[in-house]
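Demo today. Your pick:
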Amino acid sequence: MAHLWLDVVAAALAGALMTIQGTFNSALLKRIGVANMAVLVSLIGFLAAVVVFFIWGRWSKLTHVVGAPWYAWLGGILGVVIIVGVAFAIGHLSAALAISSIITAQLATALIVDHFGLFGSEKVGLSWLRAIGFVLMVIGTRLMVDR
């Protein structure tokens, strides 16, 4: 049970940092444009990842990448799309509406991934409680529209 709380805290921290990152990236996007922002943010992220690799990584683990499924290679591309999308959304909507829309879409996608066990994940069926939770997220997102 202790690991569950640590996992939930890590997820919550990542979500909070995503909002802050999106706001930072949106400010940068307004000053230097979308392509320049995407390159600069990705380059800085790459350099940070290199530092993390030298602290915690192991060269021997890199050989395991050969057997990875094709979709495992798409994370970097999706990362750029996410960086641009979040910065764009926050720049054009309120942060609350942008993030609630993002989270609702994430939840919808997660429910589909869970239900069908996509990309090697464990199958977790769509229950009534999960469906109600999703509907409540949609309602909550709609409530964020305050214009």
Q: What stands out?
A: The chain has two domains: 1-92, 95-147. Residues 1-92 form one domain. The first helix runs from residue 2 to 32. The mean pLDDT is 91.
